[in-house]
Amino acid sequence: MHRPEPEHDVNDAEPARWGLSRVLRLATGVREEILDQVPSERARYTSMGGVVAGTAIMAMLSMTAALYWVFGGFRFFIVLAVPVWGLFILSLDRWLMTSTTMGQGARAAGKLLARLFLSIALGVVLAEPLLLGVYGTAIDEKIAKDRQQEIQTRESDLRTCNPIPGTPEAASPAAAEARCAQLRLSLAGDSPEALQKQLDTATRQAKTLQTTMDNDGKAYAELEAEARKECNGTSGVGLTGEFGEGPNCDRLRAEATKYRSDHQIDENGKRLSALNQEIKDVGSRLGTARVTFGKSVDTAIDKELDAVRGRQGRVGLLERFRALDELVAANAYVAVTMWSIRIFFILVDALPIILKALSGRTAYDRLVDERLGEQEQAAHIRTVENLHRHAQNGDLMRYRTDTVYRNQRDLIDEGSRVQRANLDERRGQLIDAFEQHLMRTAIGPANQGWSPGNGRVMEGESQDDGPTQELIVPEQPGAQW
């Protein structure tokens, strides 16, 4: 494989010593043993490492601000969470740097764009909490005004929907709006509204009764005057002109008395007096109830406003984002500056990948690709060798298995032959013994001295062999007669 010539002689390159530059280069994932072959690239990767480390520091500041606003103050676990987040961002940027090789073709461009989009998304996440810190004063002021406005609006609505009965505010159309149904306050004690209705009813009844009594009193007075004229002897139309209590005088007085009784003038007078007393009492109670109601309304409204303040609590992260959006919508200058800062933060986080793209394909990249190619080829060779070794081991195992099988089969065959020979020998012995037994049985006493071969009893042999013994032939497995 052809190796590109390094920019400097390898023998002239000195290994990098440990220091700040080498620590910064660790953030880029660069391999120092390869970089030693192109020492001119050290400055480039040291700068890239500084950018990656700066991005991690910015991420830690962003996370610190976000956690501070989320929990409304400093918490001890922030000291542990922030470094972990910074290490995560550092590792992610380091992976982006090491995994982005500036090759050629659409495939390399697609890999670069995917990593660039990931860096931009990460930059957006990091930029937002820092923006809240940049516009912190304006955001706090906006939130304070919004909360105060919420309290004032709530108080105004409660007072509009809970007016004191009998006042001009109670007769306004705003107090009868549909939204007031959800804003009515439940108060203890006499209700001014109920007392006002009772007072209005009593006043209306007294006025009507007063009108009736005025008309009835006028008619009764006319009848009384007519009767007095008749009794006094006053001349006039329908009058007799005779003095004294005559029939006409009695009649006119009876008519007046009957009119008074029929129209219940006395009873109406008592009812009117009772109504006037009721009006007086209810009016007195209404005045007291209005004062009490006003104080109760103030107390209830204060409780409602305290509840609103309690719900507001500390300023959270989402509330800050909402306030920032409202500031941006209301002020074009804030919108321009905010987007400028946001784009700056995004570019800072994407800067490692941008620098990698702008640097192009360096000598270090060529050496890395060559080293990776060599490693892949070596790995391929090792894989082929391992496969071949496994194949050979498989052949040996099969040959060993076959050999063991053949040896075992031979042993089995040999054992079978020995067993057959033993059986044949034993069978012959049994046959001979059985044959001798038959021959002894056939000869008997008359043929004593006969022996096989010559038919005579040999000299010196006893002719009486004694009682014949039964030949017991043990059963042998597999033996056949």
The Rg value, from CA coordinates, equals 63 Å
The number of E-state strands comes to 0
Counting helices, strands and paired strands, the structural category is mainly alpha
End-to-end distance: 85 Å
Arithmetic mean pLDDT: 76
Keywords: Membrane, Transmembrane, Transmembrane helix
Pfam families: DUF4407 (PF14362)
Protein name: DUF4407 domain-containing protein
InterPro entries: DUF4407
Overview of this protein structure:
The chain has 481 residues and is mostly helical. It has 3 domains: 156 residues, no CATH class; 173 residues; 82 residues. Helices cover 72% and strands 0% of the residues. The protein is built from 12 helices and no strands. The radius of gyration is 63 Å and the shape is elongated. The N terminus and C terminus are likely disordered. It holds the Pfam family DUF4407. This is DUF4407 domain-containing protein. Keywords: Membrane, Transmembrane, Transmembrane helix. InterPro entries: DUF4407.
Quick tags:
0% strand, 481 residues, mainly alpha, 12 helices, disordered N terminus, 3 domains, disordered C terminus
What topology emerges from the helices and strands here?
Layout: H1 20-26, H2 32-35, H3 42-70, H4 76-99, H5 106-134, H6 136-161, H7 192-232, H8 247-262, H9 265-312, H10 317-330, H11 332-359, H12 363-443
Helix pairs in contact: 1-3, 3-4, 3-5, 3-11, 5-11, 6-9, 6-10, 7-8, 7-9, 10-11
Short description:
This protein is mostly helical.
